[in-house]
Amino acid sequence: MSHEPPGDDALLRAVARGDSQALADLYDRHSGWLHARLTRRCSDPETVREVLQDTFVTAWRSADGHGGGAVGGWLWVIAVRRLADARRAAARAGSRDLLAARAPGTAPSAEEDVLAGLEYGDVGAALDRISPELRAVLRATVVDGLTTRETAHLLGIPEGTVKTRASRARRELRAALVALGPAGGAAC
Amino acid sequence: MLNRRPTPAPRRAERTVRHVPDDTAAAYADGTLADSAAWSVDTHLDSCTACAIRISALVRTGGAGPLLAGVREAVLEAAAAGPRAGRTLPWRAALQSARVLRPAWVGSVLLTLAVAVALSRLGGAPEGRPWLLALAPVLPPVGVALAYGRYGDPAHELAASTPSGGLRLLLTRTGLVLAVCVPLLSAAGGVLAGAGAAVAWLLPGLVLTGATLALGSWTGCHRAAVAVTAAWLLAVALCGLPAVAVPLLLSPAAQPAWAAAAAACACLLILRRTAFDHLERP
Q: Which of B82, B116, B135 is the last residue of a domain?
């Protein structure tokens, strides 16, 4: 099912040695899904293009700084931070129109539960019930692993708003889970 | 830094859901997958190369194909043009970063020299020397503030978000500033006052630079430079202007105290090193 010729780690080591063919291979492996994932978070194709390009140029320059761990996750962290930076720069330049998704607020403590529950559909259904802007906050902090500050930049809202919306998202998620609960009120 | 992301131990999702099903992968690739299902794919892709390759291939054959090909070309071009940071020759990197030295600052260094020399010409050597030595220690901190940070460096955001940004970059630029300051000011001091006095400002200059960096870890370099410069000028004024202050503050007897202060600044800077990994607050 999974055949991985040289393996991502070996590829990245080659990139770190300055092998541009390895960079091309790395790009072919990961650029597609990175593009799809970025596009879900940013509706402006030009920004996505720039972020994608920045991501691989950064990977080329700092491949030897990769401290182990999954290469896909490493690339995504670079990409999503670049995206947050790009949003922040755009917000500063006054192009607020780029900030399509406006949602803050996340509960770090809910993180593992959400990730663990995604496969079962219960949390999935609960997520579908909460408002899109709260969902965007959860995605930034839970799935993308951004800090409050980075989330604020990504979504174009103040940090304080991120925090309040985070706790709201947590409350709503909990309420939605309770409403969906198979046993009604399984607690107690 | 870059791998700070929480990539926790095996989650339930990874144990039970082996790989992304074909129809889900196709929906993810064309952007039509529902949010909650897409999040599962997101987290799976962080660690699964096989699915990453499959989905990337699907995206490439879709509408984003031409864009991906264009970016690929641009990335490879950038890689061919710019050597990797680790392989950049040191003198080359220094030359490249020399561009951050503001003409205004280099001008102010030269102006200080010119004024000091002019004063000594007009009123005899004793006039120019104290002024030169009183102003010399604040020139490096001012240069550092102009070469790094939100207000000085146009590429500041880029610098702060790259792995080699932060303290390493700040120290590189500080070194560059000192490389310009030290020879010029020492040479002028030597001309005006003889070899011994020419280097009297060096340690205080280092201390003020170190204090700017250390204080800058809390306040940002520009504010720190303003505060440190003001404190120094105030001290000079309180001691009774350069003619009195310079012999006092820069005397050989004071040098051990300056050396101790320099060491203290270095220790503080080491303790605060991680503070430079983030963007300065506005």
A: B82
